[in-house]
Amino acid sequence: MASTTATMGNLPSGFGICTTIPDILYLPELVFGGLVWILVACTLVDPANPQGWVMFVSVFCFTMTFIWMCMFAFGVHRNSGGWAAADFAYHGMAAFFYLSASVALAKVTLDKKSGLLFNYRLDISAVVFSYVATLLYFIHTIFSAIRWKSF
């Protein structure tokens, strides 16, 4: 019982998520993930398959990160153990998904180089923000693993 209490004592709740590493990364993940979502939605979806994967990843990760952040902010993790491992697993999965989506988006963008300049600039911006989101999720994964292993 004492180990469960100590485990939950290191996970922040409330405004504490705005002051601790890796939880402070929730907001940048939401911002850059939302930008990817918006920029891909603004461009011509051609070919549909890689762009559909990018949209799925950006919408899924945006939604799940928002839910995850709210769960930590409202202290839901205080009711049971295993949240540090779940945080590590989710952010590792999100980093992997975003990396695969970023590579697919970069490939589609390079293939559309001869298209309209405006759409090409939007696609380049989406690729850059997608890689930034990937980096943020990867950093969050590393710090979540460190926090999980410190228990």
TrEMBL record:
GO CC field: membrane
Topology versus the membrane: Multi-pass membrane protein
Keyword annotations from UniProtKB, A to Z: Membrane, Transmembrane, Transmembrane helix
Family matches, as Pfam families: MARVEL (PF01284)
BP terms from Gene Ontology: myelination
UniProt signal peptide: none
Molecular function per GO: structural constituent of myelin sheath
Membrane-spanning ranges: 24-45, 52-76, 88-110, 122-146
Keyword Metal-binding: no
Subcellular location: Membrane
The MARVEL domain, residue ranges: 17-149
Protein's name according to its UniProt entry: MARVEL domain-containing protein
Taxonomic lineage: Eukaryota, Metazoa, Chordata, Craniata, Vertebrata
